[in-house]
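Target chain:
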Amino acid sequence: MSKQVVIVGGGAGGLELATTLGHKFKNTASVDVLLIDKSPYHIWKPLFHEVATGSLDVDMDGVDYRAHAANHHFEFQLGELRDLDREGKSIKVNPIQSDNGEELVPAREVAYDILVLGIGSITNDFSTPGVKEHCLTIDTTRQAESFHKKILNEFLKIKASSENKPLRINIIGAGATGVELSAELFKLTDLIKTYGFTKISRHSIEVNLIEASGRILQALPERISDSAEKVLAKLGVNVHINTQVEEVLANGVAIKDGAKISSDINVWCAGVKVSDNFASLGGLQTNRINQFDVKPSLQSVTDDHIFAIGDCASLKQDNGQFVPPRAQSAHQMADTAAVNIANLINDKPLQSFKYKDKGSLVSFADYTSIGFLSSMAHKQVFVEGWVARNLYVSLYRLHQAALHGYIKMLLLMLVGRINRRLRPRMKLH
């Protein structure tokens, strides 16, 4: 009887793991690999802000899970995780419905021998009043596309209006997503006037980047924060540090001392957590932000037949720090999980995961990039400008190589260059 490896979540880690295991067991009839995701296509999460502003088109740049599965020797099923039955070794999946609510596939159970949770994370609203009612988020490609449509609709209003009133956008949270989104919005104003929106300019938007801590990009070295703030100021972003949002309103945010920062659109980009829907999934041990506690082998501390990787996994390192929720963490975890799942199946010893911080890069659209690399001597090498921009792009290319191999990655890079000549520089609908 074959063993069923079920991976829930096709993000950076989950899809790379399914691809690796698909090839590893393609000639092994006793092992089947199944990937389940609630979306039919994959977009690398660090690029969601580009989907939100139209720089990236999911229809052109996304990876179709079904096609990818067929090419890489695993099975894909569309579905959203609802519950976990550890005793029966099965997961429960929500029904699939059409856009008008018609049930296409009923709720179902999927059996597993080994389960991998790669369900990612969402933004953490910290129970702030008004976030759910009055804030947009870009946790998924669907949400990013909704944001893009709203921005285009607002620009249509500006185009048709006789007033010269700017579109006010509050971005709450000055981590990498908030900072990169701020820059992408100004790139959008630079590009869209090429396509008939002649009234639109950088003065057509007013971007407020609101951060509760003492500096932007709090998780990165202070030198990068300082450089990033100068870039944003040059673009025209209003940066508000040490500014705690008390409540989100329909027309802005209320901060301490009764002050208010007015807006037409609020976007929440502060903090991360795993969805509350999974806070007690199958009785697995989780932390305060619902991440699954795992051993160094990436197995759940509660159940050796369940692994967790990427943003949804909580692993304390030897230095006392936890593995950060980054794309490079998911990539590295996928590599270790692939080895350990094969070893578990073959009754071999499991490896311990060792996170290697290779640095961080922040992109300011096409204007510049800033970041640092970790050297062999564990020193931080600061990079910016053209060098940093090319390194930032190379991270995505490495992700493509992990999915498709280097030859196809090079072909995709070539197609991308051709498309930039043939297609509009931004999605216009």
Remarks:
- The first strand starts at residue 3 and ends at 8.
- The mean pLDDT is 92.
